[in-house]
């Protein structure tokens, strides 16, 4: 693969409002040109033929909502009405996935102004309730970030954070997996020593899980394997930047990353072997995978929301 340029991104560590910042940590800072009137689209999931977006106010990083997303014949997308929901008052959402009538929402439970823990919410018939999500002893402050649904009844959630309960940063990443729709869980470490890491991106490839973890210096490590077993290290790429989205298709897995304000795409075999690095993928703004739709993603900036593969 071609050499990748160093990331120009920086991270914030000691934070006031730890929960909100941890919830936003893996998507902020945003790519160049994405601050404007269009709401932040944190995550998108397919529920049957319906597309649902988790959004946040572009200027305040809060006022979260679940909104329908419609696509016209030219691939332009528009946010529709908000779905009825009432998230717990102390919960800050990060990512969503959907299966049948259920929407799963990862995020952060705010314990105090400088303390937060990973959380998972189940929404069914407009009612939201916490799911008992195990948190490793090594993560005393953190967030539940990426989510994938790799099989019937199976849920995989990236649980990230720090062993310091008063420090809002991602220094290690774990994977929590349930095989019975969230009733019981197992967890296993993915990576530690991340410094002020950029967070984990996760996808279901159809044959297993594909995870990308990025350290403070932009080095990305790819992990692959079956959801019910520990993932194995496939490849490490130095100076790859902040992973925004992992998009799996029949032919390959794309990892979209921001590096020095530009969007880059790297392609991998589903087993993790690197195929090629594309210096310019023709993308603009922030890239968000569409959970439940192989090969599909959206890209948005301050003027429009565009779709690919839908």
Automatic annotation (TrEMBL):
InterPro entries: TAT_signal. This is Exo-alpha-sialidase. The lineage of its organism: Bacteria, Bacillati, Actinomycetota, Actinomycetes, Glycomycetales.
């Amino acid at each position: 693969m071609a050499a990748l340029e160093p990331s120009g991104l920086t991270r914030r560590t000691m934070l006031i409002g730890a929960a909100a910042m941890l919830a936003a940590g893996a998507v902020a800072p945003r790519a160049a040109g994405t601050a404007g009137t269009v709401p932040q689209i944190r995550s998108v999931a397919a529920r049957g033929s319906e597309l649902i977006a988790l959004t946040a106010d572009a200027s305040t990083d809060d006022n979260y909502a679940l909104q329908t997303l419609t696509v016209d014949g030219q691939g332009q997308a528009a946010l529709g009405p908000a779905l009825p929901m009432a998230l717990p008052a102390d919960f800050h959402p990060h990512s969503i996935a959907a299966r049948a009538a259920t929407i799963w929402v990862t995020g952060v439970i705010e314990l105090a102004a400088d303390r937060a823990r990973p959380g998972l919410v189940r929404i069914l018939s407009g009612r939201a309730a916490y799911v008992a999500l195990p948190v490793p002893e090594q993560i005393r402050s953190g967030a539940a970030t990426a989510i994938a649904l790799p099989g019937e009844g199976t849920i995989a959630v990236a649980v990230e954070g720090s062993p310091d309960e008063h420090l809002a940063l991602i220094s290690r990443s774990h994977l929590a997996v349930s095989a019975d729709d969230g009733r019981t869980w197992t967890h296993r470490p993915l990576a530690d020593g991340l410094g002020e890491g950029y967070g984990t991106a996760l996808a279901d490839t159809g044959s297993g899980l594909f995870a990308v973890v990025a350290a403070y210096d932009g080095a990305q490590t790819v992990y692959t394997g079956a959801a019910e077993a520990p993932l194995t290290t496939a490849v490490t790429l130095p100076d790859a930047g902040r992973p925004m989205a992992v998009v799996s298709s029949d032919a390959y897995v794309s990892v979209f990353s921001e590096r020095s304000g530009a969007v880059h795409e790297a392609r991998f075999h589903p087993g993790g072997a690197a195929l090629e690095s594309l210096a310019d993928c023709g993308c603009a703004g922030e890239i968000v995978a569409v959970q439940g739709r192989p090969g599909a993603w959206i890209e948005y900036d301050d003027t429009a929301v565009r779709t690919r593969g839908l």
